[in-house]
From TrEMBL:
Gene3D superfamilies for the chain: Nucleotide-binding domain of ferredoxin-NADP reductase (FNR) module (3.40.50.80), Translation factors (2.40.30.10)
CDD domains, alphabetized: siderophore_interacting (cd06193)
Gene Ontology molecular-function annotations: oxidoreductase activity
Family: Belongs to the SIP oxidoreductase family.
Entry protein name: FAD-binding FR-type domain-containing protein
Taxonomic lineage from the root: Bacteria, Pseudomonadati, Pseudomonadota, Gammaproteobacteria, Vibrionales
Domain FAD-binding FR-type: 5-132
Amino acid sequence: MKPNRKPKAATVIDSLSLTPNMLRIVLQGDDFKQLQPSDLGGYIKLMFHPEGHTDIRQVPEGQRPIMRTYTISELNLDRGEISVDFVKHEIVSTEDHSVNTERGGYAIAWAMHASVGDNIFIGGPGSSQDIDFSADQCILIADMTAIPAVSAKITTLSEDAIGDVFVQLTSPQDMPNWTLPKGVKLHTVIGDDPEQLADAVTQVEIQNQDIALWCACEFTAMKTIRAHFTEKDLIQRDKSYFSSYWKQGVTEDGHKMIKREDAERGEG
């Protein structure tokens, strides 16, 4: 399903720290009452003026708003509310909170300073790619940026699912409150180095050939993980999803270009 391209007006109604390194912004908008339950876990586009504020009506003619992609973490149709979760980054610990197209940081800078009553325009939602989890072994992989998305996928696992969930956290206190099927083992990786996640995943025991794979994390880690399973000939097109949500040392727009090049090579 393609996202609804008409921007939706939204207002901040709450801001709270979920964990030491995860921030939640709750948004309300009349248009959100028209969403569907299936939009939980879908993606939206937060829209910014190039100068960093959210009044996109002031974007100069011929330019487009800066857009950043996030996942709907919670959805209340009756109240017209969605929750969006943000990973806190180093930018928020500095005195200079300015953003621009070269430096990036639009979304987290806004989220860290958002107050009740602030307004923002939202694009979407669009559906995240579904895969067939009816496999003999399910493997789900995420870092902190993908926790909202993988949380939605976990809820779709059958009670008799067998497999592994790998999640990289900045600290143990960042662990989500997940309920996993009895046959699914949780692997936590603590630290900020993307290679730690890739190393943990590539050591997983492969019990059979029928595997469903869902992976979203840093670009280099994703490529390492994807190559590992490709070399073992364990990639099934309808049962595999690999995506990078960011790239270490690169701005959001730089990552978009790298991700696009990766897809054009037929690797993403």
